[in-house]
């Protein structure tokens, strides 16, 4: 949903809507700040002041954790291993997350700040731990693994270290408790197994211990967040095991928020003031909602499509998310009770050409928004009229290129300073080194081009770095596939619309997924040319370890192998592709992908992703890109 697709130039600075005029609202416009290049394998976090903690996948597949302080981004580093992921941030600029360790298969939860650097929070046992969230007291909530393969929620603080929060039922290796959020009062929310092995939401405090929040008459519940007073929002089953959003308090218990006349609902986030946002279903249509104690559930509206998803909310009542247009394009929005739903693409000032903001993830109390765009992760900061740096748009380039043929790429950039001068450096991802691009600019906006020739098949990440004379830089990237023209070769690169329910870890997610794969012919594989699949949707990032065609070559478009999701958990996959009626021309073809793993306790297959299913003719058509299968 949040991956890059090359789209047309979005309208910039469009007129206010009729709702805004009627309300007399002042138009808020936003400056774009590029936060970095690469897929985003973890949801970003933002403080009340607009500082950002986020995670990027680098070209080698390793994840890196970053902190944006309002001016520059800093790589947090790791605890000695190759990767780290940021998961939370507080108003003091402390970041929580998880890092791999040097020479160890285990990971550890961490807390980081500029003053202390990265601090290993340890573990409850000798296995892994991971930080999930942090509050303004510096307390971190997370989950730690046990030797018997169970997991235990924990809370860490400077005074007490890491405390095991226990379980809802003593199930040993068959049980778990996982933390999902921590409130300002120290309440930890999450979910865990009960005596009959169903999963129930919980709330934990030092005084009460772990409380089972129950359900709404069905078999399960899960906590999404907790507010400053310890109220928990989440999703619970009603009789028949349909989902309903809920809010829970110690006095009132679990309250069903309803479905706004639909069939199901779910809670995605809660503000410190208790405002809950999420979505509800009317048939197959997903609509966004906001709920408050005073106003109840309010529909957020749509941009004409059949999917609207509310993802974040601040303490001023502003809601952000994504909504599809009638054409099926995803557009980021900000909503308030006064202004209604506003397309953020219509509010960008000095935006680079071609930039499309597809989904807004989180919003701070000062109105800054972290969003996913076709140029990577960006921060949208309310425009104060001051001079600032420039922003770079998406890398425009062909999806695939034949080995030995000239390959051309371009990037646009823009900023508020009409006199600024820029230079651009290109890296084409094949070890050929950086090279200067041919940059042209006028009145603060410009573009640059680069040319390269690939000498071997593969999946390559092109990186463009745009720097002004003051040293301020903006970096964007794009993945392409180089192939040889030989019998049995196959490959593809592009994007398709992933349906709701396909990503099992975020079943309500629906939107753009990107893929890249290359399958050299048998003779090339024998000499060491690598076959590979990369796939990204939402915060699910997959890379293959083993990738092979089913049969002698790639000509029938069926592949299988093994790989990792977000660098962890070895999984298996099957890929089904067709080049389309136009012989693989841009935007033709279909993709079907199923990823699954074996349950460590039972050995049963557990599906991680399935866009259902190519083998029965239900593969998703490409929205852009190309698939080629050479007979």
How would you describe this structure to a colleague?
The structure is a single chain. 2% of the residues lie in helices and 54% in strands. With 631 residues, the chain is mainly beta. The two termini are 33 Å apart. Among the domains are: 393-482, Immunoglobulin-like (Sandwich), CATH 2.60.40; 485-629. It contains two helices and 50 strands. An eight-stranded antiparallel barrel has the order 42-43-44-45-46-47-48-50. The protein is globular and about 70 Å long.
Features:
631 residues, eight-stranded antiparallel beta barrel, Immunoglobulin-like, five-stranded mixed sheet
Task: Provide a short characterization of the protein structure.
Among the domains are: 393-482, Immunoglobulin-like, CATH 2.60.40; 485-629. The chain is 2% helix and 54% strand. The protein is mostly beta strands and 631 residues long.
Percentage of residues in DSSP E strands: over 45%
**What is the end-to-end distance?**
33 Å
Tell me, rounded to a whole number, the average pLDDT. Answer: 88
Widest sheet: strand order?
42-43-44-45-46-47-48-50
Q: Low-confidence parts, pLDDT < 50 over ≥5 residues?
A: 1-24, 582-586
Residue share in helices? under 10%
Question: Helical segment tally?
Answer: 2
Q: Tell me about the biggest sheet?
A: 8 strands, antiparallel, barrel
The coarse silhouette is globular
CA radius of gyration is: 24 Å
Structural class estimated from helices and strands: mainly beta
Record field, number of beta strands: 50
